[in-house]
Design a protein that fits this description.
Blueprint lengths: L4 E5 L3 H12 L3 E5 L11 E3 L4 E3 L10 H12 L3 E4 L13 E4 L5 H6 L4 E3 L4 E7 L2 E6 L4 E5 L1 E4 L3 H8 L5 H6 L3 E11 L9 E3 L7 E4 L10 E6 L2 H6 L5 H16 L6 E14 L7 E4 L4 E4 L8 H16 L2
Parallel strand pairs: 1-2, 1-11, 2-7, 11-18
Antiparallel strand pairs: 3-4, 5-6, 8-9, 9-10, 12-15, 12-16, 13-14, 14-15, 17-18
Helix pairs in contact: 1-8
């Protein structure tokens, strides 16, 4: 088998799964990501007093290929089951998995051995005679690559490949919703009979006691995810006001007086969830030597991101 050179833009779970398949088939692959470490929305914020999974909260396992990966990650001590207390127990459905000691443990483990260039945002790409050349936000250029797989949110993917492939229009049609995430740690334990709850609340649909997840340490830590519509309406609102609004809503939902706050942060996810996926695992333009993948192809789930990238990687590895 002749070796080809690949670039993967985006080191979230989809990009890492794609790169892993390509590398395991013996091809050269380089992964570029704007973040300091791999994981994308499988992100863990570490503070002096607590840690928070402020993006993806957990994942489920249905696909057999993903199940094998999770089994290997479990054997390596990178993932464990999370058994939160739900209100009344009625929301507990099957096994919930999390990275340990943070949700980012799974993508970091999957990234092992891959050539990853962190802290590098790819701004544009040019098809030269020798292959694809990528230009980044530091004024550098990388290449030449035989093939480029783009594994970033749909709007960013569409902008990057615009003018190079008809896939840009399909990606541009995808609507992704934002989410304000508030991370809070209390000086004493918040006394309530639950660790996680989802309800169709117009402000705060998801709350979770992050410190109830396995191998977490520190103070009683909670993650609050705002509603997509509320997040869109308040996307430019000052972070302090967002924090105050979600804390007030938390107290109202639990009907308790909140303990004193020891630490609090907010993070604004511009592309948190996909409203309507395209219904295909990936988009491939083989004559154009371009492909797109991500959770926005299938569903707003961690497993969907893996399936998208893994299936694209398997297709590209076949040559």
């Amino acid at each position: 088998m002749s070796q080809s050179s690949f670039a993967v833009v985006g080191a979230g779970l989809a990009g890492l799964a794609c790169a892993r398949r390509i590398a395991d088939a013996g091809h050269a692959v380089t992964v570029y990501d704007k973040g300091r470490s791999p994981g994308g929305r499988m992100a863990t914020r570490r503070g002096e007093l607590a840690t928070w999974d402020h993006g993806a909260q957990y994942f489920t396992v249905r696909d057999p290929v993903f199940a094998r990966l999770v089994a290997l990650a479990g054997a390596a001590g990178q993932v464990e089951k999370w058994r939160p207390r739900w209100p009344g127990g009625e929301q507990e459905r099957g096994d919930l998995w999390v990275g340990a000691p943070g949700i980012s443990a799974l993508p970091r483990w999957l990234a092992g051995g891959l050539q990853i260039v962190p802290g590098t945002r790819i701004l544009s790409m040019v098809r030269a005679a020798s292959g694809w050349v990528l230009a980044d936000d530091r004024g550098g250029e990388s290449g030449s690559f035989d093939f480029v797989a783009v594994a970033v949110p749909a709007a960013q993917a569409a902008a990057l490949v615009a003018g190079h492939t008809v896939l840009a229009d399909r990606a541009a049609s995808i609507v992704m919703a934002p989410c304000w995430a508030v991370m809070v740690a209390f000086e004493r334990r918040l006394e309530t009979g639950l660790d996680a709850d989802w309800s169709p609340d117009p402000v705060l649909p998801w709350i979770a006691r992050n410190s109830s997840k396995p191998r977490r340490h520190g103070l009683d830590a909670w993650v609050l995810h705002a509603d997509a519509g509320w997040s869109r309406e308040h996307f430019e609102t000052d972070a302090a006001r967002v924090q105050a609004a979600l804390l007030e809503r938390l107290a109202g939902r639990l009907s308790v007086e909140l303990p004193a706050v020891a630490a609090i942060e907010a993070h604004r996810w511009r592309y948190a969830r996909v409203d309507k996926p395209i219904g295909e695992p990936y988009l491939l333009d083989r004559p154009g030597s371009l492909a797109l993948c991500g959770d926005w192809c299938l569903d707003a789930r961690v497993e969907a991101a893996f399936i998208s990238g893994d299936r694209l990687g398997a297709e590209l590895a076949r040559g």
